[in-house]
Amino acid sequence: MRSSFQAPPVHLILRAYPPAPARVGLWRRPLPFRMAAAALSLMVFWGIAPWSFWVPPHYPWPVLSFGVGAYLAVWFSRSYRVRWFAGQCPRCAHPLELPRGAAINLPHALTCFHCHFEPRLEAFTEAEEERISVDEGHNLRHIRSECTGNWAEVALFRQPYLACSTCGARHHATPNLRQAAAEENETGRLLEELADEGRYLC
To answer: What is the pTM of this model?
Structure first.
């Protein structure tokens, strides 16, 4: 049984903020291997826990054996090991870190050591991305609700995103979101023209 490499579509989620871009490469470990490794860890370390009591200074060893067995069982039971990762915090846009070889499940909580919030790394589908990227009026979400910036397509981590020129909000550039961005940009352009005409008439 061999691990299979995957690079699922992912983004970083933090409540009250638009999703932030991310990319991750993962090795998916087969379920039989994970269950066998977790069970073996428990059997070995929990099995030696009673016997380790006879080794001076006696008390720490059973507790240590129990803790190591539980930790390894949880580590082996996780579905993925990280090969590479790149992502930005949804709140402060600071680069986040996920070490190579880390064992994770999706979703997975990360800590931003810049703003000390904990965004979640989640897989998504195109429909889910479009659902959370628009507000009640079917306009693209900005970081600040009063933002009037324009949307432009940019490349981040070799993926196309729609980025606001003012507040920095970013969304995956799906066909429906591209259309919503074009409509919002056109509305903003017309409002600017009307405002210019109004200043001229005054």
So the answer is: 0.67
